[in-house]
Amino acid sequence: MTSRPPLPPFSRESAMQKVRLAEDGWNSRNPEKVSLAYTEDTVWRNRAEFVHGRGQVVEFLTRKWRKELDYRLIKELWAHDGNRIAVRYAYEWHDDSGNWFRSYGNENWEFDDAGLMKYRHASINDVPIRESERKFHWPFGPRPAEHPGLSDLGL
Length: 155
Fold this sequence. Notes:
Elements: H1 12-27, H2 31-35, E1 38-46, E2 49-52, H3 53-67, E3 69-81, E4 84-94, E5 100-111, E6 117-129, H4 150-153
Parallel strand pairs: 1-6
Antiparallel strand pairs: 1-2, 3-4, 4-5, 5-6
């Protein structure tokens, strides 16, 4: 069995670390890599879509990042208890016509003893924005340490 530290039960510090690791993974836009943070039989609700297992996670993320171009994500810890973490987040992206969006969401996560995510429940809303309203400016990949988080940006 592969372990994915930090492991539950989560302290505030380890929950914040888990959130940042998830953010960095998703900002890689690498579906196969991201899928390894989830159990083989993970269950997701993402908006109105239901995903079961790592294979479907890879398919889902591949579709997502083909549609959501120049994706940049920031996650923030909301709450934690035992093996559960709640986050709020926002990400910016544009479609193939150049229309920009900021998507706001909340997720509830549950982890197994090895630190792999078993359940992910996501609620997300997309808000059209002008390109000039973008707040997430960094090169492809993880958000730099000096880039402000959601609260710092007033989001």
